[in-house]
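Researcher: Structure for this, please.
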Amino acid sequence: DVAIRLRQRPGAVDLAILLDTSNSMDGLISQAKSQLWTIVQQFADVEKDGGSPYLRVALFEYGNTDLPVNEGFIRQVVPLTDDLDVISEALFALTTNGGDEYCGEVIDEAITRLDWSDKRAAYRTIFIAGNEPFTQGSVDYEKACNRAAKQRIVVNTIHCGDQREGVHGRWKDGARLGKGEFFNIDQDRAVVYIPCPQDEIIIRLNNELNETYLWYGSADKRDLYCNNQKTQDFNAQSFSSSVAVSRSVIKSGKAYDNRSRDLVDALSSDADILENVKEEELPDAMQKMTPAERAVYLEETKARRAELKQQISEQAADREMFLASERAKMAAETGDATLGDAVVIAIRKQLQEAGFETVGQKK
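Model: Predicted structure, C-alpha cell format:
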C-alpha cells in the first residue's frame, strides 16, 4: 500500500494551519494564499536519518459565522494530506465573514481530529493565526495548549494586530504553554514581490514539467489530479510571477511529492509500480502500450523530469543571487512581519530542535 510506504519514510512532518476567517481577516487569508509555497520551501532541503521527511499539511478555519454555531464556528477544511495542490485549492476557496473566534476549541479540535504521526521524533506543529483574545470560547486555551504539549505537538501563535493586545489577549501565553513561538504580524501588510529576470524562464520550464506527470488511479481521479495541478499554477500566477515561481521551485524539489498519484514519483520507492497498478488505472496513452513499452516510456519520462528539475534548480539559484542583491537595496526599509515570515522563522528553529538537518549543512 502506497500510504503505508509513505509513512515508513525516516522523517515525518505534520503541519496544521488554523486560520481565523472572520470579517477582518481578508488580509491574513491573502497572505496565506501567496506564501504557502514559501512555507513549504522550508521542508524542501531537510533530512532526518538520511531521508527526506514525509510532509503532510492540514487546514482548519474558525471564527466564521457561516460555520455551524453548534460546532463552535470551526471547520476542518482539509485533513492531514501529502497533496499540496489540495491545500492550495482549499486556501483559494476560503471566504471571510464576521464571527466568534474560539482559539482553545479549534486547537483542541485539531489535536483530536487529525491523524498525527506516531513517530517519536516527528515534527508535529500547529500554527494558529487570529486577532481576537485567545481566551474566548468554552474550551480553556490553557488546557488545549497543555494537551498539545503533552502529545508533543508544538503550538505556535500568530496574533494579527497590536503586539500589546496580543500579549494581553494571552496569545503569547498560548505559545508558552504549547512550547512554541509567539509572533505579531500585520495581516493587511502587502507582500512585496521582486520581479526577476529568471521568472519567465522558470514558469516556462514549469509548464514543461507538468507534461511529465503520469497520473494514475481511476479516470476521474487522474483528471482531478491533472486539472488541479494546473489550476493551482494559475492561482499562484494570479498573485504574481514571484508566487508562481516559488510554486514552480517547490515542484522541482523533494517537498512536492505525488508518489501516491504519479508514476514517476512512485517509481522512486517502488520499482514494480507498473506491476502494482491496474491497466485501467494507468494514463490513457500507456494503456495502449505493451508492458515493455510502458517501462521504457516511464524511464524516459523520469529522465525528462530530472532534466527539467535541474534546469529549474539552476535558474532558481541565479534568481536567489539576484534577489539577495535587490533585498540588500531594500534593507533600510522596515515593517511588521507577514504570516509567511512568522511561520518560516518558527519552522527553521523547530526543525533543528527536532533533529532535522539541512542538506549541505551537515556536520
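Researcher: Any notable elements?
Model: DSSP finds 15 helices and eight strands in the chain. The first strand starts at residue 12 and ends at 20.
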